[in-house]
Write a structure and sequence with these properties.
Blueprint: H1 2-29, H2 36-42, H3 45-62, H4 72-88, H5 95-122, H6 129-157, H7 161-180, H8 183-186, H9 212-241, H10 247-275, H11 277-295, H12 301-328, H13 335-364, H14 368-384, H15 391-394
């Protein structure tokens, strides 16, 4: 697990940068833009890039051959650029330069996000991937907590400090990952037997990955992210306008969900390894369906927060096991491509869910939020049950699993 913890620094840098970006960039935008809706749209630029760039970058990294490996070149280019553009965001001189720096930062992040995540299955045997995903998500959660806690203190001193520190941490994390992870040495992926001769890369098409199992799984991922993204985005307004909570109490309540996810990230990975990723995902969907359904009837703050703790644990069951599961439904040489598809679908949900659920709230009131979230989880359950999961063929002793190519 040592190299997994070290690889987690890549995910740590991504999470801490996004957390700071989401926390403080809206303050810069509101100086120039009066409409909250426009601010919200501008803050989703990363999701629009993810729709097009991340599947393409992931697919391209599957077909990349360099002395640094398949994924590492994208980190070596993307992370320094992201560090620079993150650090200069607070030094914008107007709306144009602010948007320019935001776009350049998002482009840079898109260059290495899929390859960074794909490094985990590249360097981890199938029977260890749920544990490894739990570890790197734990690292990501710690990064987000540090960003909110330490970042707020630094922002009080000067608005540029959190972004400068995030840029420096990105460079430090790149140094750690690039020095400790060697794809030629650490990869557990055996090249396919039909790999063409040197100089010609195998073609791994996006369309070729969209078989029946993958389509149903992507549909399930979309609907559980619709529920999650909608609740995450609109919960504070729900708490304030429907439950009558203060803004502070409403936002602090959502922390119980996030912290429960971080604490349960590693145990969820171990449980997925023990009982199977498919079963843990089913458990998480059913659990969140019940939790969201119960929240509809809850007015007591303590009981609400207890339900949010349970919700965070069930979300960990889904989120920690879903990425290794979608990787396991395809061939090992298509890991980058399937990573891009995973982020494509989750980004579609992030773009569509808040405005759609916001429209439902405008029409029927805030009470509809958790009805919609529960219904979305139910649809996700229907799609996941149609997936022909491959775990029976994968549950073999570890000494029978493929090992690193010599």
């Amino acid at each position: 697990m040592k190299k997994t913890w070290l690889l987690g620094f890549g995910f740590f840098s991504i999470s801490i940068t996004w957390a700071l970006y989401n926390a403080f960039v809206p303050f810069f935008l509101e100086h120039y833009v009066q409409s909250v809706a426009v601010v919200g749209f501008l803050m989703t630029i990363d999701n629009y890039f993810a729709l097009f760039l991340q599947p393409w970058i992931g697919n391209r990294s599957d077909r990349t051959t360099t002395r640094y490996g398949r994924r590492m070149p994208y980190l070596l280019i993307g992370m320094p650029l992201a560090a620079i553009f993150t650090a200069i965001i607070p030094f914008h001189t107007g709306l144009f330069t602010l948007l320019l720096f935001m776009i350049l930062m998002n482009l840079s992040m898109s260059l290495y996000r899929s390859p960074t995540v794909a490094l985990m299955p590249d360097t981890t045997l199938e029977d260890k991937r749920t544990k490894a995903n739990g570890i790197i998500n734990f690292m990501g959660g710690v990064g987000a907590v540090i960003a909110f806690g330490v970042g707020s203190i630094l922002y009080d001193y000067h608005r540029s400090l959190p972004f400068i520190v995030a840029g420096l941490l990105t460079l430090i994390c790149l140094l750690i990952v690039s020095r400790t992870i060697r794809e030629s040495r650490d990869s557990v992926i055996t090249p396919p037997l039909d790999t063409p001769v040197l100089g010609k890369k195998p073609r791994i098409s996006l369309k070729g990955q969209l078989d029946r199992t993958t389509l149903f799984l992507l549909a399930a991922i979309f609907f559980w992210f619709v529920a999650y993204q909608g609740v995450e985005t609109l919960f504070t307004l729900y708490g304030k306008n429907y439950l009558g909570l203060s803004e502070k109490a409403s936002s602090f309540s959502l922390t119980f969900f996030s912290l429960a996810f971080v604490v349960f990230a590693i145990p969820s990975g171990f449980l997925g390894n023990r009982f199977g990723k498919f079963k843990m995902i089913i458990t998480g969907i059913c659990g969140l369906f019940v939790v969201f359904g119960l929240v509809i009837f809850v007015k007591d703050l303590l009981l609400l927060r207890l339900l949010l703790v349970l919700g965070g644990m069930f979300w960990a069951c889904i989120n920690i096991n879903s990425y290794p599961f979608i990787i396991s439904t395809g061939k090992e040489e298509s890991i980058g491509t399937r990573t891009g598809l995973y982020y494509l679908v989750s980004s579609l949900a992030a773009i569509s869910s808040p405005p759609l659920l916001g429209l439902m709230i405008d029409s029927f009131g805030y009470a509809i939020l958790f009805y919609c979230a529960s219904a979305s989880m139910l649809v996700a359950l229907g799609f996941i049950l149609m997936v022909r999961h491959p775990e029976e063929s994968l549950n073999m002793p570890s000494n029978e699993l493929p090992t690193k190519a010599v």
